[in-house]
Amino acid sequence: MDAKARNCLLQHREALEKDIKTSYIMDHMISDGFLTISEEEKVRNEPTQQQRAAMLIKMILKKDNDSYVSFYNALLHEGYKDLAALLHDGIPVVSSSSGKDSVSGITSYVRTVLCEGGVPQRPVVFVTRKKLVNAIQQKLSKLKGEPGWVTIHGMAGCGKSVLAAEAVRDHSLLEGCFPGGVHWVSVGKQDKSGLLMKLQNLCTRLDQDESFSQRLPLNIEEAKDRLRILMLRKHPRSLLILDDVWDSWVLKAFDNQCQILLTTRDKSVTDSVMGPKYVVPVESSLGKEKGLEILSLFVNMKKADLPEQAHSIIKECKGSPLVVSLIGALLRDFPNRWEYYLKQLQNKQFKRIRKSSSYDYEALDEAMSISVEMLREDIKDYYTDLSILQKDVKVPTKVLCILWDMETEEVEDILQEFVNKSLLFCDRNGKSFRYYLHDLQVDFLTEKNCSQLQDLHKKIITQFQRYHQPHTLSPDQEDCMYWYNFLAYHMASAKMHKELCALMFSLDWIKAKTELVGPAHLIHEFVEYRHILDEKDCAVSENFQEFLSLNGHLLGRQPFPNIVQLGLCEPETSEVYQQAKLQAKQEVDNGMLYLEWINKKNITNLSRLVVRPHTDAVYHACFSEDGQRIASCGADKTLQVFKAETGEKLLEIKAHEDEVLCCAFSTDDRFIATCSVDKKVKIWNSMTGELVHTYDEHSEQVNCCHFTNSSHHLLLATGSSDCFLKLWDLNQKECRNTMFGHTNSVNHCRFSPDDKLLASCSADGTLKLWDATSANERKSINVKQFFLNSEDPQEDMEVIVKCCSWSADGARIMVAAKNKIFLWNIDSRSKVADCRGHLSWVHGVMFSPDGSSFLTSSDDQTIRLWETKKVCKNSAVMLKQEVDVVFQENEVMVLAVDHIRRLQLINGRTGQIDYLTEAQVSCCCLSPHLQYIAFGDENGAIEILELVNNRIFQSRFQHKKTVWHIQFTADEKTLISSSDDSEIQVWNWQLDKCIFLRGHQETVKDFRLLKNSRLLSWSFDGTVKVWNIITGNKEKDFVCHQGTVLSCDISHDATKFSSTSADKTAKIWNVSNGELLHLCAPLSEEGAATHGGWVTDLCFSPDGKMLISAGGYIKWWNVVTGESSQTFYTNGTNLKKIHVSPDFKTYVTVDNLGILYILQTLE
């Protein structure tokens, strides 16, 4: 320190020691880098205030010139202006060329200029916001020495003042653009006398030697004039900074050819002044990392060492620099109060979060409320109305037009005033405007107006009811999305319980809302408002929630299914069914077609939730440890995280460059691991979706990953197509252990509950158990042997074990292979249960943490949640899809074969089953008068069984290959059969004569008997042929499709016939000339066929006006227009055949899950 500065400090030492409080002074010096934390501790250890001041001055005397300047600035900032004046003469002369300071990157020249201009020091804790600072500096340099205005605007506490000060903390900017210096004026909320005082102080500061005038200006006009002369003559090319300007009339006092930088919450303040104007908007929140950086600096810890509460505090602060700083300052003084301040924030106790030395308001609520107080009286109430808005929700103007009963233009004018004052934000999207509040403003408004909230919510509902009917909102209305998402929220908040129940228990509302936004949000609302909905009837609430949960995968698809028809499939005791039946009856009177599933009582639903979060096959899904979240991954290369109860999406991450094959939560739920075809393993933060680690040591695709169950020492196991398993420690970069033993791809791995064993399953057909510590193989189970007694042919027995999951006690393990799920007892190796529900390969199974439910994921793009109890109890009979049906008066008799090869006769009305015989059959049929049954097998043999006496007749004219279809003629004397050998046999079994119909080139798929001894047949060769079964002659030959013809039917008047094909189309033809009349099922835009797959069967109504088709589901068509009249979604898919009663009112089919459907038209 030079002698002059040192002497000045020694001369005034006594006065300084007597008056100063050291804590805030030290904050400034620490932030400047001229005082260390240990020096601060040394000062604080002194017993009295005066001794602390003496110790500080003693330290400064040993330091350099820059420390003197820092101390001087600190005095100015903390209001010790008289003491700073004593030290003013001793300020060292610093040359503008002196080098940059190593700590702050600011030269002594800059420090002196800013100090003399009264520019605030950096806050005690400072984090750079380079992008914004650069934007301000660019705008300032655009002034180019000419008068003009640069405005920094943003809401309270977003850091405007700090940014303004930081922008001028730049050597080249000051030297090049503002060599006359910088002058800071804290304006704030002022009346005229307050403004005059500010102007007088500024004039005094600019004219310290009083060379212009001995007295102070006496009014604003005089002060404005004095300021103009001083700036022009004494301080040319200087910058005037006006901090926190509230009113435009204030700026007029400074509108005198100056260069001005100002900060404000109201960007319209410069409307009243002349000259070039530039604006820099400041976003209302810091990023999470910046927030954590500020906290870490305040509490003097590394970011990584901050406690868990730090992340929650940043989240609760909503990124506001002010709030983060307020909390940081409090934590520096009370380092053990993390939990306490987090609770205060969560409980919105803003008054308890008191001021720091650098902010003008006592607490955060005061900073907010002063902005609101400044609004015009006639619009204050409108701002109060915004208390009902939710966080992060952008509200269309139309919603507020309805709320306030005003024209759009009037509403926009009012809202623009709020926007100008940074009390509201506007998002312009094309022509429409959407408005939203910052999270802190929402918290402030709800706390301030808590007593009025119920009435405010009631007001918006009342206004809504004046303008709209809930289910008649149309998607082209600007406000419709808002009402669909928040109508229930407003009703619940208004305590309008009756209205809420009426809304949520309305099929019309469910249809309208799910059609637009899908089912997840609705399920979420059923969970959220369960306490209200259960008041009316908890069973009804459960009915609706279950209906949405189990049909979610259908309700999210296009074309949107008929919700009334879906409702009719619910149990008859369900409120959903009763409402659907009521609606259906009304619509049937207007010509609509609906179907009742009359044997549905026999079906138990085992799934609890079905969701479709991916756009392609789902390869894996898993629970978080607390059971609240589900993560899933699949062929669309994404990782999805959603709520376990509702299916509501929480995270979507583009995780890998190729298909993502597996995902796993860590025990503490902090991480999710993913692995992929791209050979990489990645670790993600489960809350934010940030990438934490990437491992790249497998040489083939990585199929599975699983964390240990204890977080004490977290390990990750991975299995790959390179036949190896690897163990990873998250604290190390390389693999810890590699396990050898499988001879084919490792598909899945799982640690046992105690982490001692690792189970792995493989394409080699084995399940292996490994010692997790030593990596040695302990046990190997050959899963293939459990399949050998299955109905599958022996030669197809390649069993790839896809997946395994342990029960909580480690005694049982669940295994998925093919499209089946088995539960095995490890010790006894006995099968406990199996369940079917997926329409395609099952890729993964996993128990919930408490074992009460489990997840399965499949190629059918769905994830199903099952209840373990129900699955273990269920032993439903699975029917094969080859069935025959006879309709007699009011009876429906079904002949079917079940999964254990029993031939059974089922009464469709009563559900009664008669077991006939066991047989290895490929097809079966009933005679029209129920006297005989016939069946064919895979070897081409055909047998007839007489039901009365169990006599058997065997055909000696055996087919060479599998028999696919057999049928009796009306007189029961002749049996017709078709086969893979491309031949049709007409066997008069009573006379034992046979006619062979030969003409097809490939497998005869099926045939249909017509009148006058004619027969219609269709084949894999793409042709349809008409035969005379008495003569054996071929009468007509149609080439209909490029691919296999799957089904055909002819209208009752024999003028039209229809055909469907493997090319996923259905066509209607003219019989006489072969002309194509209609194409029923072209591919839709997405490429998904209208039928959900191949159309496998067709049937005309007796009047020829309707057509029914079977495929992925059942559809009814209007033959005249070619349009669909109704769709029935079966639980399974791949329907092979539909049997239709002569009156076209009863329909029978079996899906690929073995479920029998007897459907009847609703009268």
TrEMBL record:
It holds the Pfam family CARD. InterPro entries: APAF1_C, APAF1_CARD_dom, Apaf_helical, CARD, DEATH-like_dom_sf, NB-ARC, P-loop_NTPase, Quinoprotein_ADH-like_sf. Signal peptide: none annotated. The keyword GTP-binding does not apply. Residues 1-90 form the CARD domain. It comes from the Eukaryota. SMART domains: WD40 (SM00320). One of its GO terms (molecular function) is ADP binding. Keywords: Apoptosis, Calcium, Repeat, WD repeat. This is Apoptotic peptidase activating factor 1. One of its GO terms (cellular component) is cytosol.
